[in-house]
Backbone:
């Protein structure tokens, strides 16, 4: 059975994802991980393999953040 806290987190995440618009999708790293940049308001959110990485001010910063993360993790 799912707890109330888990349900609330799922609802918050899904509501936030509705407002996001996909800006760019590409693959990175040796393992060809799926990377995606989404825009929510004035912020750009970077995702690597479906997991949220961070929020950035510009699309270029988000792209560079994804590349730096993958390089750092040696994936």
Residues:
């Amino acid at each position: 059975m799912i707890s109330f806290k888990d349900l609330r987190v799922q609802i918050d995440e899904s509501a936030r994802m509705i407002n996001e618009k996909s800006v760019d999708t590409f693959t990175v790293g040796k393992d060809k991980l799926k990377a995606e940049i989404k825009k929510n308001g004035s912020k750009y959110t970077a995702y690597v393999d479906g997991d949220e990485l961070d929020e950035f001010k510009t699309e270029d910063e988000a792209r560079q953040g994804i590349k730096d993360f993958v390089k750092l993790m040696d994936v």
The longest strand covers residues 21-28. Strands lie at 21-28, 33-40, 43-48, 51-56. The mean pLDDT is 89.
